[in-house]
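Could you join me in thinking about how sequence relates to backbone shape in a protein? To get us started, please write out a protein record for me. Would you write everything just below, so we can both look at the same thing?
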Amino acid sequence: AVLDESTGKVLVVQDRNRTINAWKFPGGLSNPGEDIGKSSDTRFKVLSYHMDCKDCSFHLGDTAVREVFEETGIKSEFKSILSIRQQHKHPGAFGQSDMYIICRLQPSSFSISFCQQECLRCEWMDLQELARTKHATPITSNVAKLLLYGYREGFDKIDITMREFPAVYTGLFYKLYHRELPESYNNIT
């Protein structure tokens, strides 16, 4: 969910080739080995799916950032995980159970250039409108309400953040996603 905190608008798409053209957050499948959240500061050269973006070079930190850019042309930065949906027997999960992770992203660009092969429409929508509309998927509507609560009351009340720790295996690290602990608990030794 890409939220522009200065305007209270969120980026939404309507998928092409769906039976119901409901508003939803842009996203898609994770590539093998690709992180959910922020990873190392690596620069990638990307040949975009957008017809008008031939050779775009920018920071890609995770699945959500990449998918948002591929579908909408919007560059963004990972802030947190908002929610996780688990669904068994999902028709698009290749016979596997599906874990759908919705992240909170902050936009670093605002001009939409959406992929017309994947999306029917794309726009910045008022977050309160998205939370109320009947023309959104149920998960989008529920996460929009969660996002609206965080926008109004503080993201610390809803965010699941990431910290990286050294693994027990030499030279390897793991990412732990959790609600933030008070500083006094982080410093317990």
